[in-house]
Amino acid sequence: MSEILIRNARTVLTMDDAETELSEADILLRDGVIAGIGPRLETVGEIVDARHCVVTPGLVNTHHHLYQGLTKAVPGGQDALLFGWLQTLYPIWERFGPEEFYVSAQVGLAELALSGCTLSSDHLYLYPNGARLDDSIAAAEDLGVRFHATRGSMSIGVSKGGLPPDSLVEDEGAILEDCIRVIDAFHDPSEGAMVRVGVAPCSPFSVSRELMRDSAILARDKGVMMHTHLAENDEDVAYSLEKFGCRPGQYAEDLGWTGPDVWHAHCVKLDGQEIDLFAATRTGVAHCPCSNCRLGSGIAPVRAMLDAGVNVGLGVDGSASNDMASLIGEARQAMLLQRVQNGADAMSARAALRVATRGGAEVLGRHDCGQVAVGMRADLALWDVSGLESAGSWDPAALLLAGPQKVRHLFVEGRQVVRDRRIATIDIEAALTRHREMARTLAGLG
Ligand SMILES: [Zn+2]
After folding, report:
1. Which of 108, 131, 182, 446 could anchor a disulfide with 66, C-beta 3.0 to 4.6 Å?
2. pLDDT tens digit sequence for 352-406
3. Distance between CA atoms of residues 322 and 270, nearest Å
4. How far is the CA of 174 from the centre of ligand 1 (A)?
5. Helix 234-244, helix 82-93: angle, nearest 10
């Protein structure tokens, strides 16, 4: 039996149905699960002093491309729109291999963990030079964060009217075969799973209609979730109207891409009908506000989605279209953007944090995560509010208005992944050194 007692937390934001907030509470973690919450609990294990900390459920990242961490702020793509940005980066990504995928996942997940993330999904849709989904899963397992890897794909290259170079696309039969391989090898459907696998064609403009449909059939046959990019910007909607003769929501519905086992990234351009469709079918959305700002895509109608009952979580998106992968920063950005669109009362600090925690867990089908409650998985972020970022705050639990950008401690499945603001599970300095060398080599500097 392994136990840790989080003692005397200043405030606990539980994210339960009643939006309960507790003061000066203890939280007992036992064997990966929250075993008790209340005053003066006892333990046989380690005690963590949380006197100065606000405790939240771990934040959940519902959209990322971890491999892009090696191509942050590439000069030719810094100020480009989505399609031009992709065309700048494809030739660089073509040179990646297994080690690039492992190290970028390791460093990217560590960056996320320091910003409060305990559960991340990843959308990996290109496999050059022998790289496999296995590489990023190994990195997550070594770091100790909960990981939903998705087997992405691209099958329509330039020669067939698509966007990616032909060298980065795969044969559709081989894609489906590899989906089956990774699901059989890694997907754990059980409660408390550390690894799950999903099926994720890159986007309607990089795979065929048949692959979208067959991927959905395969995912449902295997009982795994499905993910893709949808309605990201005006160009994306125009492509759908021109090539498919319908809006993205209709295209998704026609091919089986709606339901509680589906979540779509971005959805910046969903109209009212599409929002109603997503609400009625319990289709999830990964809202990526920084990426949408960075690429000038627009402001996703998140207030309208939440009001309609759509499940919404947050995503930092690939590091090449956000450049910073801070999930707490993403939550603040989500709060601010809804206020730009709808006014100062459109999204409170607590509401945005709820989207970042429980919202994301629900989008990923994790009803065992996302709340601080007895019986839930022991995934917790501890935010020390005694520092200068919180100084002067009359409400330190309003973390997104004034609060730290890094966690003091982070627990995943009851294991301490961040201790005193440092990664505790791997040699992060060695990983960073390797990451720096790789980025220099790719840039032609090393
Ligand atoms: Zn993306």
Report:
1. 108
2. 999 999 999 999 999 999 999 999 999 999 999 999 999 999 999 999 999 999 9
3. 21
4. 23
5. 90
CA of 185 to the centre of ligand 1 (A): 25
CA of 125 to the centre of ligand 1 (A): 10
Q: Amino acid identity, residue 101? A: F
The CA R_g of the chain, rounded to the nearest whole Å, is 21
Q: How far is the CA of 121 from the centre of ligand 1 (A)?
A: 11
End-to-end CA distance of the chain: 48
Q: Is the pLDDT of residue 446 over 80?
A: no
pLDDT, residue 404, reads 98
pLDDT tier at 416, thresholds 50, 70, 90: very high
Residue position matching structure tokens 């100020």: 79
383 forms bridges with which residues in the sheet?
54
Among 346, 415, 407, 339, which Cα is nearest to 377's? 415
Give distance in angstroms: CA of 41 to centre of ligand 1. 43
pLDDT digits (tens, 9 = 90+) for 167-225: 999 999 999 999 999 999 999 999 999 999 999 999 988 899 999 999 999 999 999 99
Q: Tell me the CA–centroid distance for residue 3 and ligand 1, in Å.
A: 38
Q: How far is the CA of 367 from the centre of ligand 1 (A)?
A: 24
Nearest Cα residue to 323 out of 124, 130, 171, 108: 108
Can you tell me which residue has the tokens 């209609």?
Answer: 209
User: What is the distance in A from the centroid of ligand 1 to the CA of 306?
Assistant: 21
As a whole-number percent, the residues of the chain with pLDDT over 90 amount to 91
101 falls in which pLDDT band (50, 70, 90)? Answer: very high
Q: How far is the CA of 266 from the centre of ligand 1 (A)?
A: 8
Q: Which of 267, 195, 189 is nearest to 228 (CA)?
A: 267
C-alpha 332 chain-centroid distance: 15
CA of 388 to the centre of ligand 1 (A): 34
> How many whole angstroms from 243 Cα to the centroid of ligand 1?
21
How many Å lie between the centroid of ligand 1 and the Cα of residue 64? Answer: 6
Q: Give the mean pLDDT of the chain.
A: 96
- For Cα atoms 411, 426, 189, give the angle at the middle one, nearest 5 degrees: 55
Torsions phi, psi of 350, nearest 5?
-70, -40
Give me ligand 1 centre to Cα 247, in Å: 19
CA of 72 to the centre of ligand 1 (A): 14
Taking the centre of ligand 1 as the mean of its atom positions, its distance from the CA of residue 204, in whole angstroms, is 13
Task: Specify the DSSP class assigned to residue 58.
Answer: P
